[in-house]
Structures are given as structure tokens and as C-alpha cells.
Amino acid sequence: xxxxxxxxxxxxxxxxxxxxxxxxxxxxxxxxxxxxxxxxxxxxxxxxxxxxxxxxxxxxxxxxxxxxxxxxxxxxxxxxxxxxxxxxxxxxxxxxxxxxxxxxxxxxxxxxxxxxxxxxxxxxxxxxxxxxxxxxxxxxxxxxxxxxxxxxxxxxxxxxxxxxxxxxxxxxxxxxxxxxxxxxxxxxxxxxxxxxxxxxxxxxxxxxxxxxxxxxxxxxxxxxxxxxxxxxxxxxxxxxxxxxxxxxxxxxxxxxxxxxxxxxxxxxxxxxxxxxx
Length: 277
Hints:
Layout: H1 22-25, H2 28-32, H3 44-73, H4 77-101, H5 106-110, H6 125-134, H7 149-158, H8 164-176, H9 195-206, H10 212-243, H11 255-262, H12 268-272
Helix pairs in contact: 3-4, 3-6, 3-8, 4-10, 8-10, 10-11
């Protein structure tokens, strides 16, 4: 007769009445108890978990981006590069998550959509902070967070801080012995393409071995924006597949608004200069 395997025999700890367990360390009770469905619709659980997990990945994205910015300010490029690579992989995960949400049909979403009220992903303060850190800044977007003073203040503070791209441009200018027009560093407006910046990046790409650190920094930024663009595109496609051209629950024009966001370029010079090589 085969004896059932007992993990304790291999030294596994089996009692946690006085010690921290896996569940304790990860605070799983509040996390797994946070799926508060407002209806009896089967697919509402999918919808909630999709967005909650996206917010967790965004939490990590903010952790990585803010630290990467500090590393670049300090001239510590290797750790910054690793963090930027990680952010690109995070957005790859977020892209894959749309495939799961797209298993929900328009009929299934209709069963609980009304229960969302006017809540919408448009109101995600973490997503807004990611955009602000990357340089897509718009002070008008703060208004939606006025009901949460601490979030409103946090986002406002970011608009007084150089973006990740600003810091990258500081390094570009310093290493090439340039001084960019201060207008480039607009703090609370989206970054606009600049010929002087494009010429500087073109110099880097024309002699990559001479400017390898800047060359690698540029490619890390392009890789990040590449995955970020894919995430936006998949968002549009998923929304159109599920609700068509209805207005978003938060009042936006839905697909039309999301398509407009596809036109936003975070690091325009890094894309535009490719045609100059």
C-alpha cells in the first residue's frame, strides 16, 4: 500500500499559528476579498479582476519609472536600463490581459454595465501618473481627481517635476555638450517635437559606438513606448469589440477618445529622426 506524501517529512513547515504565512505576507485576504460584484452577472468578476490586476501592474510600473528617473538623474545608467526594460515587459503583460477580457461578449457586458454608474478607467489616477511621468502632461486631467485631495496633490506635484524624458534629454545634452532651449522642458504640457532634440538624437544614431550609453538609452525608451502603444491599440480594439461606438461610462466618446490617444507620441524625436538616417 502506497503511503500518502507528507511534506513535513521533507522539512516543510506546516504550522503557522505563530509565524507569518504566504497569505499573511501577501495580504491576500483583503486582495481576494476586494471583488465586490454589483450584479449577479457571471462576467462581472472577470471585468473587476481584469482592472484590479491592471492597477497592480501599474503600481509596479510607477515604482520602476520613478526609480529609473532617479537613477538617470544620478548618471547610473545600467540599473535605469534594467528598470525601463522591466516596464516594457509589464506592458507586455498588460497587453496579454486584453485577450482574456475579449472573451466577454457585448451581450455579457450589457448584463452588468449599468451597475458601473459613471466609474471608468479614464479616472485611473495611476494611469494618469504614468502618463505624466513619461511626459504626456495635461493639467486639465487633474480635475477628475478633485474629490480625492491626496491624489489631486500627488498628480499636481508630478507636474512640477521633470519627466523621465526631460531627464533623458538632460543626459543627451550633457554628453553631447549642448544646451537645449528651455521651452523644451514644459512641465505641465505634452512634450512637443523639437528639431534641436531630433538633431541630437540623430547624431547619436549616426555614431552609436561613440555614444553607446545614449544609444542604449534611446532604444530603451523606444522599446517602452512601443509596448505602451500596443497597449493603447489593444484597449481601443477591445472596447470597440465589446461596446462598439457607445459613449464610455465616464462620459468620454469611448472608441473615438481612445483612437485620439493613439496619435500621442511620448518621445517624438526618437521616432521622427529614423527617417533622417
